[in-house]
């Protein structure tokens, strides 16, 4: 067996000279010595008996990076090609490949890896090692596998300049690009940590990234969450010791103090070259990279997260690009977010979130998910949780509350049609704000939640945008849209864009702002409201005022909202995480119906956000105008954003308008906008009429199938009364779990 203990090719100074230098430094500059000693001890405690295993395609820089990392950690450095394979075979790797051929080479390489053993070392694998399962299982037992993820175009350029002649799998009829793409599946299977490596990044920088990534991997304490209503300066010892991690906030949803969870140290920042490395990536690949940096592997390992993402954004979406960007006119582009199974942007979070939730929850408890929806969330959450494995459905149920008379007929038909054995819809004789407020109050009612846990072994959880796992996936499509514009040659990386989003609960807008914080060059975030324009007035004046305001039913029901829940997260951010101030704002809103920002906070807000609103008449006019000039049909929410974008953009840069739903969901309003005189009240007939227009985009496949199968169906309807809602919840628990 091949053992390595003290092989240190890059030790630059002898032990005696090191001791002499340390003694002189300690006597002359004790503070500097203490800092250096602390750094040295930290580096040596990083590995212990574990190995850092560098993995990646040929030309990724594994050998050079490994030597630098080994030097920084003062530990053994092993290159599998040079120090193991060629030593074992007594011939070069290229000679061995030529001698035995592709398949036999992989087997021989794997056998050599199985005989290899090391501890506390930095190991650079060959590019083909990950293709041998048994060998990788062996090496992974005592190693942290770091994937040096380099863009394929960069690798091809490097290999061409190196005149590499020993690429395993390369043969006549199989291109280098095909070989590299084929290998990615194996790299993704084995890595614990991914390090993005741009084309012009120095090996020294990559080595530092590796060390930082390993430190993050080993210390989940770095990534905890706090409530928007807790203040760092005012936190008690008990609060400090009761840390919340990603898994906790996914399960709990809402903080016990009524606030919303946010990352204590903020979101990760990507360097420009890291974003540039994703320009040619697919949507799924971009999602994997971004979410890996936002979800600690102690909560969900990278390999499992990759499986969840591939499941969420695979066959469930009708467009291979998942979230394509389409040119509309002039400098305006549409981010099409309606290609999921229920035809709205909510699918991006709710095809993913159920699987995250199922992975995070303990196996010893049942969970009931409570959801309030103004329209699109309902069918999306019902569909998402219905796709869980059968074993998960047995312990996870869902109840969806929606305003009985506050959604479109097709939206209601969808929610009724998407009911499954573990998921139900309940119409409430009130508006969305009541539904949302009621759920918040239920979560903070410790007597009721405690009763459910003791009596039925069932805990409550939330799947609304107040849940961090709902918000996080939305960051991805805003980043992806920008990268698509770069890939299409519309802009170069670093050039700014504006974003305009139809905004009600502020979650989608907050996700865009988070993408900006993570390094996407977004200039202006434009909030587009309908006649329920409380957000527009707030952004313009700093006064959030609900006094005398009544919800107005509009043609864009998903933004018929007066209380924007996710605004709390944004205010917490610009208030320098002053939880006491945020608590004051929202207590005042709850008790007095209004609050006002101080002048300095309003200034910060107006640097980030601008806002406008649109009437129903202008919304319908925009739909008609765009169809007449382009043949494209906007849904009513996208039309609201289009009107506001036309009014507020300065045309000095591209503007990405979020197309948040498919027009099929709002057929009566669309037919009215297209000036159809007689409109059949049957939703299926309305869709067939729209399909006769042969417009872009075509009628949504999933929506049409749902309506064909279900018709109007049955659902429960209840009064706007807290005790009635709680009774419905208890009954559902009894029927499903008992």
TrEMBL record:
GO molecular function, one term: pyridoxal phosphate binding
GO biological process per UniProt: amino acid biosynthetic process
TM spans (from-to): none
Keywords associated with the record: Amino-acid biosynthesis, Pyridoxal phosphate
Superkingdom, taxonomy of origin: Eukaryota
Entry GO CC: cytoplasm
Domain Threonine synthase N-terminal: 235-313
Name of the protein in question: THNS1 protein
